[in-house]
């Protein structure tokens, strides 16, 4: 079906024609990529500028244009592949099926289907840029591939840009090295009071049109890759991909990470596994030692508590009493005193049937908290990890990384690969967002990269913003991978929380993290009602299925997660007003005879109303739950 004009120039522009019921275009080549369910259609465009031009694509969702343009291209220190491209060829349609198992995350069995095509373009020097595009049922992924023309050739820039029209709602976080910020709502690409803000971290959520959303991120960063972020400095509505490293060695061939656009309904975005679908399969053969679970955590209530052996013992006792498998020994364990040292602490944890986890400084960024420089060199890591095996430590938390550079990404991968050799689980803090590593390296249990409950320690900002922030994270940060928010803080740390107890109880269900660190004081957990303690003791941290039942960013969330045949349903009110939240159960396929236990807001917000053995409504009716301001609820369906 290809047409080449008499001038020899292929005027290859995008048109869907009969594919989506739109008017056909004269002299147009149809070479779209269509998702298997035909809801998403991607059309590549070569804008005619003489013989050479710019290249972009558009995305249609359910027959209507969803994303106006995604501009494409890249640049090396030797040549450009942008503004000087002409179409050479396109591959035949290749069906893609992703079918794999996960030990962690929102779904244990992940299945997705897509369609792939590879488009080849030639620049004015006669060199080829390959653009691989996949249209999945839940989004679009694309990547670049080039061959170097000289041994010293470097990737220096990327020209990918997302066109987001003025007036469209977007929830995006200002880019920082630790990804610890809020996701404020904007409709013009700027922040109120911060007109100069123009750098944005992944993921970014956009409501393309009413009830059609897009989440922008990247996935499958391999060794030698640096991360990227978004910049709209030139135009508030054009988000350009910017590389963290200004120079990236290419080798003989170079392939970019996947640029990922999850597109669909809000539930489709939240439930998507597209980030792991396009990531490399697991590199770990024996995974029997990888066990998700909850952990007691001393830092939130006592910043320097690990220095105190007697105080740390209380957290091992807490984990044992609550039947949590783990306890995290946080920073400054090399300074432990008051009757014991690290070896004594690990021994005591084992005596209580608790598996200890151990904190490390990455020694690449903030060099204050100790221990330092134990993991940076391969020989030091091997020595340290062998010692941890002998000591009886089951995992590590590594903190304070320095950005998204190639060297940082390689260091993350070094840590994951070497830890797996010694059967050690990994939690990254002060770190980048997950980009699919949780599939490739299944010992990656969690990543911080979130403005979480730890910030109650640092300043008073979270107090008044927590409810809306908590009701935004399920639609943004937590979509792309595990999030170590450290939920479930019923008492106050250095700064108070004004979310209700039921709101806090809902968070370990709403927020996915294979290691769920429970941060409050032992006395607080011991003082909870018996049924609440039983709930926290039995709560899974990895799931067989996940469904978003209702919600909107910043307003409310109702999440359902299944483990075995038990459904855990949790909802939160993100507003400062009382709110009646509807809980639709028809999509869960629940049989008659199921029973449900509810935990709802007590009248003062500091207590629970528990309703047991209440039969589910018949005929898929929506259950209405009244929540206090910043309130919430949990339901367990057995």
Briefly characterize the structure:
The chain is an alpha+beta fold and 638 residues long. The longest helix is centred in the middle third of the chain and has 16 residues, at 406-421.
Describe the structure.
The protein is of the alpha+beta class and 638 residues long. The chain has 11 helices and 37 strands. The strands form 5 sheets. The chain has an 18-stranded antiparallel β-sheet that branches. It has a 7-stranded parallel β-sheet with strand order 28-27-26-25-24-23-29. A hairpin with a 2-residue loop joins β10 (128-136) and β11 (139-147). α5 (378-391) runs parallel beside α6 (406-421). The radius of gyration is 25 Å and the shape is globular. The chain starts with 32 loop residues before the first strand and ends with a strand. Residues 1-29 have low confidence and may be disordered.
Helix share bin: 10-25%
- What is the number of strand segments? 37
Radius of gyration, taken over Cα atoms and rounded to an integer in Å: 25 Å
Helix/strand/pairing class, anyone?
alpha+beta
Q: Averaged pLDDT, please?
A: 93
**Overall shape:** globular
The number of helices is 11
Instruction: Please report which band the strand proportion falls in: under 5%, 5-15%, 15-25%, 25-35%, 35-45% or over 45%.
Output: 25-35%
| Low-pLDDT segments | 1-29
Largest sheet: 18 strands, antiparallel
- Terminal Cα separation, in Å? 57 Å
């Amino acid at each position: 079906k290809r047409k080449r004009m008499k001038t020899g120039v292929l005027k290859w522009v995008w048109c869907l024609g009969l594919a989506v019921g739109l008017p056909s275009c004269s002299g147009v080549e149809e070479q779209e990529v269509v998702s298997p369910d035909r809801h998403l259609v991607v059309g590549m465009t070569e804008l005619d500028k003489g013989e050479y031009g710019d290249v972009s694509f558009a995305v249609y969702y359910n027959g209507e244009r969803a994303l106006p343009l995604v501009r494409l291209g890249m640049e090396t220190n030797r040549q450009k592949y942008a503004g000087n491209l002409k179409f050479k060829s396109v591959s035949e349609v290749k069906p893609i099926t992703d079918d794999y198992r996960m030990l962690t995350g929102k779904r244990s069995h992940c299945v997705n289907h897509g369609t792939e095509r590879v488009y080849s373009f030639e620049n004015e020097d006669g060199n080829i840029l390959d653009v691989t595009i996949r249209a999945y049922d839940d989004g679009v992924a694309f990547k670049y591939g080039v061959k170097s023309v000289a041994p010293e050739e470097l990737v220096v820039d990327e020209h990918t840009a997302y066109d987001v029209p003025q007036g469209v709602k977007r929830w995006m976080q200002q880019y920082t090295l630790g990804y610890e910020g809020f996701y404020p709502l904007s409709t013009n690409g700027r922040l109120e009071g911060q007109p100069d803000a123009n750098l944005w971290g992944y993921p970014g959520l956009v409501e393309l049109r009413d009830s059609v959303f897009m989440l922008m991120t990247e996935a499958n960063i391999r060794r030698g890759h640096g991360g990227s972020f978004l910049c709209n400095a030139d135009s508030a509505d054009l988000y350009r991909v910017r590389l963290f490293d200004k120079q990236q060695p290419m080798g003989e061939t170079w392939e970019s990470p996947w640029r990922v656009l999850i597109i669909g309904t809000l539930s489709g975005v939240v439930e998507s596994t597209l980030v792991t679908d396009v990531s490399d399969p697991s590199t770990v053969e024996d995974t029997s030692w990888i066990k998700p679970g909850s952990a007691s955590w001393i830092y939130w209530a006592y910043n320097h508590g690990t220095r105190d052996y007697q105080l740390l013992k209380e957290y091992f006792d807490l984990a044992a009493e609550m039947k949590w498998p783990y306890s995290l020994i946080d920073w400054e364990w090399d300074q432990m005193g008051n009757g014991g040292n690290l070896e004594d602490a690990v021994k005591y944890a084992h005596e209580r049937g608790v598996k200890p986890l151990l904190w490390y400084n990455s020694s690449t960024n903030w060099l204050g908290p100790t221990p330092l420089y134990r993991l940076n060199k391969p020989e030091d890591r091997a020595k340290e990890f062998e010692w941890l095996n002998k000591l009886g430590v089951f995992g590590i938390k590594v903190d304070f990384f320095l950005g998204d550079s190639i060297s940082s990404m390689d260091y993350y991968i070094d840590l994951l690969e070497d830890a797996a050799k010694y059967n050690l689980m990994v939690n990254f803090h002060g770190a980048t967002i997950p980009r699919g590593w949780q599939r490739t390296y299944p010992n990656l249990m969690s990543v911080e990269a979130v403005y979480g409950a730890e910030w109650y320690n640092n300043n008073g900002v979270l107090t008044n913003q927590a409810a809306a922030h908590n009701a935004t994270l399920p639609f943004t940060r937590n979509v792309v991978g595990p999030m170590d928010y450290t939920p479930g803080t019923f008492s106050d740390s250095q700064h108070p929380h004004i979310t209700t107890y039921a709101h806090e109880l809902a968070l370990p269900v709403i927020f996915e993290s294979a290691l769920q660190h429970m941060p409050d004081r032992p006395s607080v957990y011991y003082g909870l009602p018996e049924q609440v303690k039983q709930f926290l003791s039995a709560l899974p941290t990895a799931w067989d299925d996940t469904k978003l039942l209702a919600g909107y960013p910043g307003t409310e969330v109702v999440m359902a997660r299944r483990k075995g045949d038990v459904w855990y349903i949790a909802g939160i009110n993100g507003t400062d007003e009382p709110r009646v939240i509807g809980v639709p159960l028809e999509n869960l396929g629940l049989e008659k005879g199921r029973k449900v236990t509810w935990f709802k807001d007590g009248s003062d917000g500091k207590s629970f109303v528990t309703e047991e053995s209440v039969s589910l409504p018949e005929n898929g009716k929506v259950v209405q739950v009244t929540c206090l301001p910043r309130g919430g609820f949990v339901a367990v369906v057995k």
